[in-house]
Amino acid sequence: MGGYAGLIRGLVSVIAIAMSLWHMWVAAFGPPEAIFFRGGHLLFALAIIFLTYGWKAASNEGEGGPENKRWLPKAPDLAILVLSLASVVYLFVTYPALIQRIPYIDDPTRLDIVFAVICIATVIEATRRTTGWALPITTAIFAGHALFIAKIDPLLLIDQLYLTTEGIFGSTLGVSASYVILFVVFGSFMERSGTGRLFMEFALALAGRSAGGPGKVAVVSSSLFGTISGSAVANVMVDGPITIPLMKKTGFRPPFAAAVEAVASTGGQIMPPVMGAAAFVMAEYLAVGYFQVTVWALIPAILYYVACFGAVHFEAKRTGLVGLPASEIVPLRQVFRDRGHLFIPVLIVLVGMYQDYSAPLAALVGALACMPVALMRKTTRQGITFRSVLLALEEGAKNSVAVALACACSGLIIGSIAMTGLGISFTALLVDLSKETLLPALVLTALAGLILGLGLPTTPAYIMMASLLIPALIKLGVIAPAAHMFAFYYAILSAITPPVALAVFAAASLAKADMWESGWIAMKIGVAGFIVPFMFVYEPALLLVGDPWASLRAFVTAVIGCLAIAAGLHGYFVGPASLWQRALLIAAAFCLVNPTPVTDLVGLALLALVAGVQWRERSLSRTTTAG
Fold it and tell me: In this structure, are 141 and 181 located in the same domain?
């Protein structure tokens, strides 16, 4: 059995490395025809999945690879693998006939039907193994609706889902093949080159000695790591083992420590320059460059982390927590001297996209720069070998296959919706339910996003919202970038929203804390994430759309508002806050996030009132103590 295990693991490593290298080649020299490119991407992903994931379904994020590392494929797994690969290769072999036939008019042949059924079934099974039951069940519901309620001809549905680029091989799989894998590979190269340690030391140097320093370190380091991870659960599992014990050591309660790490890690999906996979799908839907999406996301991401940082600060001040001793922190100057050059690959990606190079090409150049940059200095050279390169290539491919299958399975949903016109019906229903008023429509969309996110990974949850709900928001007057960003946020926030909050699950297990208590605290810390989407819908300047001065004013008042709501919820501003002061702080926050000059002035006045009262209370307390 040992020889068989070694053979399988070696085969998986070769396939994974080949997958990464092929996509890097494509990024450099251009992709082949869509069917070959997207089909090739799917071929690699199916091979890796059926050789590494067992029959037991993974969690719905599909993070971290198979749960049972000792599992080995049996004869049925190998049979499914061969059938799945054959169903894709069949399209390659019959491609000349495929491009000559007229979709929806020329009936599929018997072989077309056989291989279509095999491909659809194996894609659903591979998705179940990597992301759990929710997405396959959702796919079955939409396909069943098309067949049995909308009465779509089965041959037409097969045509749509398998023989065109409107189903499995649609634009969502194209996004995974073009964008996602390159950025995942880039993240793997950065991890292998030691950037994770740089982020941690940088965060410690910045915030480690301040009140509640380890909590602030968790916020800063998770936001930085999130820029190369784009995954809430992966972020928790990398940062959490370091930050959570530090937080507990300095006095944070375990549920609060878990909540801070979960909220900070979840924000990685909205943090430029490398956001979650759904951001690449958004760029495809809106027909804009990925860099434009990062521009829209910048201010909302900053607001999210400002509120999270403020929550940690105010909680630490309220409970009298201190930071880490200077002896445990590497000085910032030394961090930059020893490891600062590891920021270069990130700068390469940013500059490349700013100069209008394609995002995949920028990610490719950034990945290729990681190891040479690490070799520049003795302090980062240790452990960098040719094996490090191979491991980065292997891990990059393995970490991307769950997204690839989620995108392929989402293509089945999108194809079914397109055939039935269900998207138009949902748009009409949402407009009718909201009585053609924007606020109720936004609330309904937010609730739908949170509900979808309970069972689906972020990408398919966002895709379903884009197909069913976003058109209604646009019809009610929301600009397209704001509508898509709104859906994107609420598809992500399910990671910290009980009852199914995967980032909280992961962090609570590391902190040995109660999951439910950690989840409710996470919602309180991340409350800005639930409010910010409403802010940029009503004030698109927060997406850097329109007048720069309006964007600056909206940003400044929104930052103050996010800090005010954190202060109100955690009971501390200039000093401890009484119940009525907390109420005023929260009222001030809502005034400041409502983008009008009058409400801004009211909010600032309320803040000044609370601050003045608390300064006076502190002065009186000091005088009494001195006397």
Answer: no
Classify residue 586: in a domain, yes or no: yes
Average pLDDT, the chain: 87
Stretch 9-28: mean pLDDT, rounded?
Answer: 96
| Same domain, yes or no: 162 and 193 | no
Alpha carbon distance 504, 262 (integer Å): 5
Residue by residue, DSSP assigns 415-482 as HHHHHHTHHHHHHHHHHHHTTT-HHHHHHHHHHHHHHHHHHS-HHHHHHHHHHHTHHHHHHTT--HHH
- Encode pLDDT of 35-60 as tens digits: 999 999 999 999 999 999 988 766 54
Exposure class string for 443-464: b at 16+ Cβ within 10 A, else e: ebbbebbbebbbbbbbbbbbbb
How far from chain centre, in Å, is Cα 219? 16
- Burial environment of residue 259 by CB neighbours within 10 A (0 to 12, 13 to 18, 19 or more): buried
Q: What is the extent of the structural domain holding 225?
A: 174-406
Looking at per-residue confidence, does 184 or 627 come out higher? Answer: 184
* Phi–psi pair at 572, nearest 5 degrees: -155, 135
Fill in the DSSP letter of residue 252: -
Note the pTM of the prediction, 2 decimals.
0.84
Number of domain units in the chain = 3
Residues 27 and 84 in one domain: yes
User: Quick one: 203 and 321 in the same domain?
Assistant: yes
Residue 223 sits in the same domain as residue 159: no
Task: Compute the distance between CA of residue 155 and CA of residue 146 in angstroms, rounded to an integer.
Answer: 12
Which residues neighbour 340 within 8 Å (Cβ) at sequence distance 6 or greater?
Answer: 198
The conformational region for residue 30 under phi > 0 = left, psi -120 to 50 = alpha, else beta, is left
Task: Provide φ and ψ at 398, rounded to 5°.
Answer: -60, -35
Do 15 and 159 sit in the same domain of this protein? yes
Answer yes or no: is 235 within a domain: yes
**320 and 186 inside one domain:** yes
Residue whose C-alpha is closest to residue 88's, from 51, 126, 116: 116
Domain-ending residue, one of 378, 406, 434: 406
With respect to residue 613, please indicate whether it lies within any of the assigned structural domains: yes
For 324-350, the pLDDT digits (tens) are 888 888 898 999 999 999 989 988 988
Determine, yes or no, domain membership for 494.
no
Tens-place pLDDT, residues 576-618 = 889 999 999 999 988 887 767 888 899 999 999 999 998 888 7
Decide: 367 and 345 in contact? Cβ < 8 Å: yes
Six-digit token pair at 72? 């080995």
Same domain, 39 and 185: no
